[in-house]
Structure prediction request, 524 residues.
Amino acid sequence: MTIRLTSKRLLITAISIGLIAYIIYLSTSSGSGKNGDKNPKNILTIAFDSKIQSGDPRLIGSDANSQYIENLRFLPLISFDEEGNTLYMLADEVKILSNKSWKISLKKGVKFNNGKEIDAYDAEATYLQILSPQTDFPPSPRKGAFSNVSVFKATSKYEILIELKTPDTSFLTNLTIGILPKDAALSSPPNVVDSKGYESGPFLLKSASASNWLLVRNENYNFSTKAKMEQVDFKIITDSGTRYSALVRGDIDIAQNAIDPDKISLLQKTKSDIFNILSGPKLSTTYLAFNFRDPVFSNLKVRQAIAYAIDRKSLLQFRLQDQGILASSMFPPNHYYFDSNIPELPFNTQRAKTLLKESGITDPISFSIKVSNSNKSTVEVAKAIAANLADVGFIPTVEMLENSVFLDQVKRGVAKVWISPWVGFKDPDHLRFVFASSMVPPAGGNRGAFSSASVDELLQEGREEVKPEKRKVIYDQAQELLAGEMPYVYLWHSLNVAVVAKNVEGYKLYSDGRYWSIINVTKK
Prediction:
């Protein structure tokens, strides 16, 4: 029998599938929270807007959610406090031997969940698997951050010697990788580190799927006080409307940087009796980037035309409800390495049209702006930017991609123009990771293959300089060169915004977005 799918029948089928998916979500979700039986006091439920790419410290890449989970499961040598300042974790003392060598002493008595004490040989093995992976183990996305290492060696049970090929005063900020036991680090297959006693953090992974990662309290955790919550359920809800509905219904206790700005404003006006809205500074910069492999976008006049055509102030005011500040460079104004000498780009359509004409490209410039579909407000911003660009003569479209597909295309150099944020950076060496010629993926984050010998030289010089005041001068010069070359059009620095249910106590914002404060959270 042949079935003809008419447009009407297709519409009915699509609606039916949507209803079934929604009913399944309702039946499997944490519940209303009001009756307390589906969202009990011993479970903290947190909304994520995109998938967690990996739970293996050796293979975690640049996606923030994977790093947030890693931080809770595997203790690193170094971490950061609420303001982004360096915090020693497994490291007990760091001795500076030179501007390219350190001796790190480890805390004694800290254990993995299987009871084994964490020692320097575990740290050595974890980092060596990233630096020089064993046979058949895939290259780590983190390898680029350690390309300068010449020695990473356990000199005794509790001491590590690190030596670099060239000076790098920012190197310690890279030592945030969760430590695995030596045998696991060297021999466990990729992404096979769960439920084996390898974790040392306040939580253990109980289960993981595309829709949620469930963590349970590590009862053997002995680094500090045990977590107060028995379980933390990270629910991955990629649709912003569904996330908001789940939050309002009571299925979600915390939604950090996961609710659209217009909905935040609505919650402040109508749900202040149910939710607290926390906000604060965030180490985050949203940008529009160009692929320099494409001859159109390697043309400076084209990039400048695009920059002048974007009405960033209106976007921030009306699309983001003023939940951020305009960006002129990578670093927000409260960052030590912010360069106040870089002028703010004005919105000037006539200037944009003139620059486009001066580019020498006579054919219509047609392209897609790629964006992750995990954040509705970013999608709406992309559409508004496309409209701005169309007004001055470009022919842009917006291509919304599932987040993992988006990240893959950007890393592989498929995207010509895209919008994305960098989140959590602390040291100005982040500029080298993003813009140095040697940092094209998989080595680093230079996804647009930008290249400038002058910028490379300054970024290397800044990497080697020890004194902060001298580094500031160097990085100011680098930022001014980058402002001229315009590999990015900087859009805004977002605020850190979390919607927290009133019955949740003890939650604090971290400037880099991490969730470390949940170890002290309780629910009434």
Observations:
- The radius of gyration is 24 Å.
- Residues 7-28 form the longest helix (22 residues).
